[in-house]
Specification:
The protein is mainly alpha-helical and 309 residues long. It has a single domain, classed as Up-down Bundle (Rhopdopsin 7-helix transmembrane proteins), CATH 1.20.1070. The strands form 2 sheets. Strands 3-2-5 form a 3-stranded mixed beta sheet. Strands 1-4 form a two-stranded antiparallel ribbon. The longest helix is centred in the C-terminal third of the chain and has 35 residues. The chain is globular. The termini are far apart.
Length: 309
């Protein structure tokens, strides 16, 4: 039995993590805390970069964009889940679900592209240090960020528009805490072959492409670091990449782990739990990783917080 999604379908039900009433306050408090830390930490990074002229460089320009995207990324999913827990409701409207799915795909894509752009920036800084400011000029930096936005928007529009053409069954429960594309497609009664094909195609092209660029950049970076004679020079060169490499490892390992694990286990509830790592935990850890290992960032944060020596 089918429902015409353009005329009759009104809402989906987000099942979340647990239906046990006693656990709802715990889940609410945990996610509210992580969300507030994520927003405060990433906005503080942006404020520190904007307020400190010494940080007006390509590396920190990309970092400020990544921090803003992480705020938007987390805000796409967590607030709705918190509202549902507080109101003891699982419902999300059809329009709200499609909108949430659109922005989730958009910001995941932006994270992916920005991490690749930052890897290229580190490649130029270490492998071509004398030409760094010439190559990574302000115009190119803006173009790289703009291209990331355009590709991510096009990808999100493609998947969302294809979902809008589908017919949904009566059973509209989504075993997740947000409208994730693959979970939404499981509620579809019509054929999803083209949707699945497009997911694989865009994953390989727009997901694998940036990952390949990151791996290539770091292969060249490692070769350049190994060619440095002094141990101090090697440590200094590696330290400029350590924070970014940590974020890349966390983002890709957890993201790939979630989707490979879900494909093997076919357990939607475990997938929802694992998704928390790259949708909530990774954006929350980004400010800590970049600030704890970066002297310039720590100095700028102290100035922003009024801790001048």
């Amino acid at each position: 039995m089918k429902v015409d999604n353009k005329t009759q379908l009104s809402e989906f039900l987000l099942l979340g993590f647990s239906e046990v009433p006693a656990l709802q306050p715990v889940i609410f408090g945990l996610f509210l805390s992580m969300y507030l830390v994520t927003v405060a930490g990433n906005l503080l990074i942006v404020l520190a970069i904007l307020s400190d002229p010494h940080l007006h460089t390509p590396m920190y320009f990309f970092l400020s964009n990544l921090s803003l995207v992480d705020v938007c990324f987390t805000s796409t999913t967590v607030p709705k889940m918190l509202v549902n827990i507080q109101t003891q409701s699982k419902a999300i409207s059809y329009a709200g679900c499609i909108t949430q799915m659109f922005f989730f795909i958009l910001f995941v894509g932006l994270d992916d592209f920005l991490l690749a752009v930052m890897a290229y920036d580190r490649f130029v800084a270490i492998c071509h240090p004398l030409h760094y400011m010439v190559i990574m000029n302000p115009r190119l930096c803006v173009q790289l960020v703009l291209a990331s936005w355009i590709l991510s928007v096009l990808q999100a529009m493609l998947h969302s528009s294809m979902v809008l053409q589908l017919s949904f069954c009566i059973h509209l429960e989504i075993p997740h805490f947000f409208c994730e594309l693959s979970q939404v497609l499981r509620s579809v009664c019509s054929d999803t072959f083209l949707n699945d094909l497009m997911i694989y195609f865009t994953s390989v092209l727009l997901g694998g492409g940036p990952l390949a660029g990151i791996l290539y950049s770091y292969s060249k970076i490692i070769s350049a670091i190994r060619a440095i004679s002094s141990a101090q020079g090697k440590n200094k060169a590696f330290s400029t990449c350590a924070s970014h490499l940590s974020i890349v490892s966390l983002f890709y390992c957890t993201g790939l782990g979630v989707y490979l694990g879900s494909a093997i286990s076919q357990n939607p509830h475990s997938t929802a739990t694992a998704s928390v790592i790259y949708t909530v935990v990774t954006p929350m850890l980004n400010p800590f990783i970049y600030s704890l290992r970066n002297t310039d960032m720590k100095r700028a944060l102290k100035r922003s917080l009024g801790g001048k020596s």
